[in-house]
Design a protein that fits this description.
Elements: H1 4-28, H2 35-45, H3 52-63, H4 72-89, E1 99-100, E2 103-104, H5 106-109, H6 112-131, H7 138-152, H8 157-167, H9 174-197, H10 205-232, H11 235-238, H12 244-247, H13 253-275, H14 285-296
Antiparallel strand pairs: 1-2
Helix pairs in contact: 1-3, 1-4, 1-14, 2-6, 3-4, 3-9, 3-14, 4-6, 4-9, 7-9, 8-9, 9-10, 10-13, 10-14, 13-14
Length: about 300
């Protein structure tokens, strides 16, 4: 029997290959826009990445008894939204980063205007792909679109980024910091899990509630680990400048709790996330493995 790590590594690699192949296929068959814009979009989406959100989507589908292949197109749509958010977050008007995934950010590799347009195009493309997702009926497609719209708009990721920008140089309470990250990071992670679960026509409200708790807690854990990596990670490993949050005086969990306190909180979040899956049998194992991966990752 494979070990937990081997099982997860195999799953993540399979997901990455499937997602990358689907993304490559769809970009190669829809190359109808301006060439430079298309190039920037491809650069941003196909230039690496851990594909954590797509993997969570596919793992959630498996947890409710669906073949993970059924979630490939929704998972790709989630990756488009994630890529768009990274392009815009890196812009000079936002976080002003020059390095992402170990290479130049999109506005550096191209130009600022092209980067903005590429992000805009990826966002709308995501909803177009969801609207045509195969293997699910129209009501499920609508539910998926609603999940992604709520998670990526002013009530989710965009709202969290606005709070983030307003918070630079300010002292926040732990509750205020959590509110920001439940929106900025956690909302799309929660949507990834919920969209995957919606591939099952008979998914129950109890299952959705448990998976929502799992994913929201995991979203916070993801951010705590990100904050720790910002002060402890190696730029060549994490793929972006080490200490960038500290340099911009952004509020983080280590700045509020200290490094040791942030690690303790991370352990609490992991326990809470795992306990929310108690109602799932072995079909939920990949989600359990993913939670361990998120809090132990080095990049």
């Amino acid at each position: 029997m494979p070990t937990q790590n081997t099982r997860l590594e195999t799953f993540l690699e399979q997901c990455r290959q499937q997602i990358d192949a689907e993304l490559e296929h769809r970009f190669s068959t829809s190359d109808t826009g301006p060439a430079r814009l298309q190039e920037a979009m491809r650069y941003s989406v196909l230039g690496g990445g851990k594909r954590i959100r797509p993997a969570l989507c596919m793992a959630a589908a498996a947890a409710v008894g669906q073949p993970k292949n059924k979630a490939i197109v929704p998972a790709c749509a989630l990756e488009l939204i994630h890529a768009y958010s990274l392009i815009h977050d890196d812009l000079p008007a936002m976080d002003d980063d020059e390095l992402r995934r170990g290479r130049a950010t999109t506005h550096i590799a191209f130009d600022e205007a092209t980067a903005i347009l590429a992000g805009d195009a990826l966002q709308t493309m995501a909803f177009g792909w969801l609207a045509e997702a195969p293997g699910v009926d129209d009501q499920v497609r609508l539910a998926m679109i609603r999940e992604l719209a709520l998670a990526s708009g002013h009530q989710g990721m965009v709202g969290g980024q606005a709070i983030d920008l307003e918070s630079v140089g300010r002292s926040l309470t732990i509750d205020q910091l959590e509110k920001m990250h439940r929106h900025k990071t956690g909302a799309l992670i929660a949507a990834s899990v919920r969209v995957g679960a919606l591939t099952a026509p008979d998914v129950s409200q109890d299952q959705l509630t448990a998976l929502t708790t799992y994913s929201q807690t995991l979203g916070l854990a993801f951010q705590v680990q990100d904050d720790l990596l910002d002060i402890e990670g190696d730029t060549t490993v994490i793929g972006k400048p080490q200490g960038s949050d500290l340099a911009r005086a952004k509020p983080t969990y280590p700045s509020l709790l200290g490094s040791a306190g942030a690690r303790n909180y991370l352990a609490q979040l992991l326990d809470s996330s795992l306990s929310s899956l108690d109602g799932f049998g072995r079909e939920g194992d990949m989600l359990r493995d993913m939670a361990g991966y998120v809090v132990a990752r080095t990049h």
